[in-house]
Amino acid sequence: MLANGKVVAARTTLFDLDGSTLQPITTNAQAGTATLTGTTVKLSDGAATALNGAFKTDALKGGTTIGIATIVVALPGHMNQMSAHLHGSRPGSC
After folding, report:
1. How many domains, the chain?
2. Does residue 50 contact residue 11 with C-beta atoms inside 8 Å?
3. DSSP per-residue letters across 37-61
4. What pTM did the predictor assign?
Protein backbone atom coordinates (compact mmCIF):
# COMPACT_ATOMS: atom_id res chain seq x y z
CA MET A 1 0.00 0.00 0.00
CA LEU A 2 1.33 3.46 -0.90
CA ALA A 3 0.52 6.68 0.92
CA ASN A 4 2.20 9.98 0.07
CA GLY A 5 4.33 8.06 -2.42
CA LYS A 6 5.83 5.77 0.26
CA VAL A 7 5.22 2.10 0.97
CA VAL A 8 3.32 1.91 4.26
CA ALA A 9 2.46 -1.78 4.03
CA ALA A 10 4.11 -4.31 1.75
CA ARG A 11 0.94 -6.37 1.76
CA THR A 12 -2.36 -5.91 3.55
CA THR A 13 -6.06 -6.39 3.05
CA LEU A 14 -7.64 -3.02 2.31
CA PHE A 15 -11.28 -3.82 2.89
CA ASP A 16 -13.45 -6.36 4.67
CA LEU A 17 -16.76 -7.23 3.04
CA ASP A 18 -19.92 -7.79 5.08
CA GLY A 19 -22.49 -9.69 3.04
CA SER A 20 -25.12 -9.72 5.79
CA THR A 21 -26.66 -6.64 4.16
CA LEU A 22 -26.67 -8.11 0.62
CA GLN A 23 -29.89 -7.70 -1.33
CA PRO A 24 -31.28 -10.31 -3.75
CA ILE A 25 -29.84 -10.10 -7.26
CA THR A 26 -31.92 -8.15 -9.77
CA THR A 27 -31.92 -8.37 -13.54
CA ASN A 28 -32.87 -5.89 -16.21
CA ALA A 29 -33.68 -7.75 -19.41
CA GLN A 30 -33.96 -4.55 -21.45
CA ALA A 31 -30.50 -3.38 -20.39
CA GLY A 32 -29.14 -6.95 -20.42
CA THR A 33 -27.68 -6.62 -16.92
CA ALA A 34 -27.72 -8.29 -13.54
CA THR A 35 -27.08 -6.20 -10.41
CA LEU A 36 -25.88 -7.31 -7.01
CA THR A 37 -25.88 -4.63 -4.32
CA GLY A 38 -25.80 -4.21 -0.58
CA THR A 39 -22.45 -5.64 0.54
CA THR A 40 -21.05 -3.29 3.17
CA VAL A 41 -17.38 -2.39 2.54
CA LYS A 42 -15.38 -1.72 5.71
CA LEU A 43 -11.80 -0.56 6.24
CA SER A 44 -9.66 -3.45 7.46
CA ASP A 45 -7.63 -3.29 10.67
CA GLY A 46 -4.40 -3.64 8.68
CA ALA A 47 -5.26 -0.81 6.30
CA ALA A 48 -6.29 1.46 9.18
CA THR A 49 -2.99 0.78 10.97
CA ALA A 50 -0.93 1.40 7.84
CA LEU A 51 -2.74 4.62 6.94
CA ASN A 52 -2.61 5.93 10.52
CA GLY A 53 1.15 5.34 10.52
CA ALA A 54 1.61 7.05 7.17
CA PHE A 55 -0.39 10.12 8.15
CA LYS A 56 0.74 10.17 11.80
CA THR A 57 -2.78 9.98 13.18
CA ASP A 58 -5.06 7.60 15.02
CA ALA A 59 -8.21 8.78 13.27
CA LEU A 60 -8.81 5.69 11.15
CA LYS A 61 -10.30 2.58 12.74
CA GLY A 62 -10.67 -0.90 11.34
CA GLY A 63 -14.32 -1.66 10.72
CA THR A 64 -15.17 1.88 9.59
CA THR A 65 -17.82 1.66 6.88
CA ILE A 66 -16.47 2.95 3.56
CA GLY A 67 -19.61 2.37 1.52
CA ILE A 68 -21.94 -0.13 -0.10
CA ALA A 69 -20.71 -2.19 -3.06
CA THR A 70 -22.77 -2.57 -6.24
CA ILE A 71 -21.72 -4.90 -9.05
CA VAL A 72 -23.38 -4.71 -12.46
CA VAL A 73 -22.58 -7.39 -15.04
CA ALA A 74 -23.71 -8.01 -18.57
CA LEU A 75 -25.93 -11.02 -19.05
CA PRO A 76 -24.70 -13.57 -21.63
CA GLY A 77 -25.14 -12.18 -25.14
CA HIS A 78 -25.47 -8.57 -23.94
CA MET A 79 -21.86 -7.37 -23.68
CA ASN A 80 -22.31 -4.72 -26.39
CA GLN A 81 -25.33 -3.25 -24.59
CA MET A 82 -23.38 -3.15 -21.32
CA SER A 83 -20.48 -1.35 -22.99
CA ALA A 84 -22.84 1.28 -24.44
CA HIS A 85 -24.49 1.69 -21.03
CA LEU A 86 -21.19 2.19 -19.23
CA HIS A 87 -19.91 4.70 -21.75
CA GLY A 88 -23.18 6.52 -22.35
CA SER A 89 -25.55 5.78 -25.13
CA ARG A 90 -25.29 9.22 -26.70
CA PRO A 91 -22.33 10.31 -28.81
CA GLY A 92 -19.89 12.33 -26.74
CA SER A 93 -21.40 11.33 -23.39
CA CYS A 94 -18.44 9.23 -22.22
Report:
1. 1
2. no
3. EEEEEEE-HHHHHHHHHHHT-----
4. 0.66
Give the domain range for residue 29.
2-87
Confidence of residue 17 (pLDDT cuts 50, 70, 90): very high
Question: CB neighbours of 18 closer than 8 A, spacing ≥ 6?
Answer: 39, 40, 41, 42
Distance CA 31, CA 19 (A): 26
3-state secondary structure of 74: strand
Residue type, 1: M
Strands (E), 1-94: 2-3, 6-7, 15-18, 26-28, 33-43, 65-74
pLDDT at 85: 52
**Shortest CA distance to 53 belongs to which of 4, 8, 2?**
8
Is the residue at 81 inside a domain? yes
